[in-house]
Amino acid sequence: MKRWPSSISTLCVGHRQLYVLACTVLLACILAYSVALAGPLLFDDVPNLTANHFLHINGRVFDDWRVAIQSSDAGLLHRPLAMFTFALNYVVSGGFSPVSLKTTNLAIHLLNGVLIYCFCQTVLRAPALRNLQLGRYACRVVALLAASIWLLHPLHVTTVLYTVQRMAQLSTLFTLTGLLLFCRYRLRWAESGAATGELIAAALWLLIIGAAALLSKENGALLPWLIAAVEVTLFYGVWRGQDRWQLFWLGWAVFALPIVLVLLVWLVSPETLAGRFWGREFSLEERLLTQGRLLWTYLGWTVLPNIVDMGFFHDDIVISQGLWSPATTALSLLAWVGAIAVALLLRKRYPLFMFALFFYLVAHSMESSFLPLEMAFEHRNYLPSVGICLFIALALYRLAAHFSGLRLRVVVGAVLAGLTVLLAISSSVWSDQLTLARYNVVNHPASPRANFYYANALFKRLDQADAVALSEQEQRELAIKSRYHFNRMYELDGREFAALVMLYQIDTLYFPRLAEENDWLSKLQVLARTRQLRPSDVTALGALVEFSLKATDQSGTSLVLHLLDEITKRYPRRSDLAILRYRYLAGQEKANAQELLTLLEQEAAANPGSTQVYGYLVQSYGNDSIDKTYQTIGTWMRHDKSRMDLPVIRRIFAH
Predict the structure, then answer these.
(1) Residue 651: its pLDDT value, please?
(2) How far apart are CA 103 and CA 421, in angstroms?
(3) Which of 12, 108, 289, 562 is the most buried (most CB within 10 A)?
(4) 3-state SS, residue 591
(5) How many Å apart are CA 581 and CA 585, to the nearest integer?
(6) What is the Cα–Cα distance from 387 to 581, expressed in whole angstroms?
(7) What is the rounded CA–CA span in Å between residue 204 and residue 590?
């Protein structure tokens, strides 16, 4: 019987072990997430998915697909590729099933893990890392460990289980594909160069993949900068086995270009950047200073995951008012300067440290810098953590090799088992809305949003008292607890519409004496005079309108109407506010049809480009004024240049 050489036999056994480990990690990831796949749709899932009627299609009409993929208000390009996948989910499942949506997210997460394995394996063969002297098998071990850490990391729970973050997942998927393609080409070019045709082919492929990343989410625009980061940290301008200084400095020039452009904009026209923060409660300077601290926080969560500190809400983070307020601001910025300086000085000896650091900072550059976005979200680490996970994997591999008594499989098993347990705990929290709300408020008691979300979850359960057969005592306890957390939100942030609206509702229903003492509607009026209106405020005003129309006590009618009038005057070009006012007036028992029609006609004349009002106008005219109905539809279509409302107009004619 023929015997294999011992070296080949050992290699085959090693590959079998890697295969078993890979299958085990994938299975562990699926099982850990499976407990939450039926969990509720939350927050932005509602306006983007369940309340987005453009996505509710049967898939038989081509134009419905066109409208569906353009139906997102997020980003400059509306993220059509991500919206296409949501529409596909709706068509396949016959509706928006949480299981269908979140299972798709999990599948994308697993596919990203496979891409990370391939990408890390390719990175470890780069010219700058030859001094590591890793063989092919060792590269596969480290790459698989990096991908496993990333797949099982609890920091990514929010990205996978918060359905709309599929946009971030898809952007990451195409960005990783582009980086993998570049690295594969670049390895060959480093050894044997490339013909012009191959360079053009590579550029075209990267252009297509980059476009797909960009059409999933705007972060995809970072692909060229990430490619430049890979070039300057791992390839050093090597071409056909030789160092080419022209290519080396070209890589650094491309890498520095985005930084130079942003600095030039800041120097020439600082208001271009700072002026975009008019709708925020913080300035550009405050955001930049705070991000310096947050980037260290994100890094800490990646290296040592602390699921107690993690969570959906991070609005309890102290905003940096200056370099020394708090003092950690200056220390954080100084530490970043020091880390970059060390990476540059030791780039020859520790090139992977420089790669991980630059990759992390570049991948964070869009959402964690000068754009007027929310301060902190965990999903922003989905792509940036890839380089850190590779660095951790190599460190663990070296640690096991350094200590002869420390077996690699023991180290790997302990790390992955620990991550799996943390992932399972974090995922289980997402299985139920009330559990998630309670978890967030326990871990972040100073978060206004966590308090509001928990209070709202309790309030919804209270609203279902009859359906779940709650006793009067249980209802009373729920009302008290719900009110406590609504009030806690108001104490933490007195400039939130939502807290005042919900306190008005719960006091009107359950605590009438407190309603008289606090006069929440008057406080809401005072706040409305100075508050910069946000989308969440319009949602809160919509809830106030619905509640006021259903309330048996109509004593607050004039105050609600006065509030809507004041806000509409402050924002005369906001048709959503005008429609809220119309809906409120239309819901009154003594509504005057002619006055309501005049209100809609005035709004259409004042803001003809805002197409929301035309549907209400057509409904008001009905069959009584056919000529005006057709004129309105004609005006509607003239202003709806992208024909987003064409399905709605077709339904009008169908009826």
Answers:
(1) 78
(2) 20
(3) 289
(4) coil
(5) 6
(6) 51
(7) 64
